[in-house]
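Re: weekly structure request thread

Next one in the queue (174 aa):
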Amino acid sequence: MDSLTTLEEIELLVRSKRTVIYIVSQEENRVLSALEQMCSKADTSWDLIKWDIVSGLESSFPEFLPTKDSEKQLDQTEVLSWFQDLIVPKNKFCILVLKDFNKFFGSGNYRGQVEIKIIRHIKNLVNEFTVQNKAIFILSSSLELPNDLEKTVPLIDFPLPTKYEINEKINHLL
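Done, posted below.
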């Protein structure tokens, strides 16, 4: 499977109201570029917001972002609450990409109160976002999905580039 087919699969999942999607890839920048491309081609206005624990919230389209830089620095629980409270107009769609968010699910059999709360929050959002114009993508280089989310969160293994895609990139650089 090539990345174009995978992008089509992601778009189909989003349009069919799968509101939380787990994407596994070693190539974070390539996936983010592909997602930005998918959002730019959508028939309605799709905005892509990225979050990680160090950089906070970032977007090429700051329409939905807080205006103050200090309000963009959110921790793992705050970002879920912020996105839950975000109001997205009916003519728009907003996707939040959570980079390395799997690290906040706990490890193995150990789950503390914070980890349990995060998992429960995501389960709540899966249902809540089906009637809103929002989706969450969890982007990680490894698969660490809790058992509680296995049936509700689809998994996408983003493929490495094909020979054709590599040749196309090389030709573009030359």
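The chain has a mean pLDDT of 90. Residues 3-173 form a domain with the Rossmann fold fold (CATH 3.40.50.300).
Next request, please.
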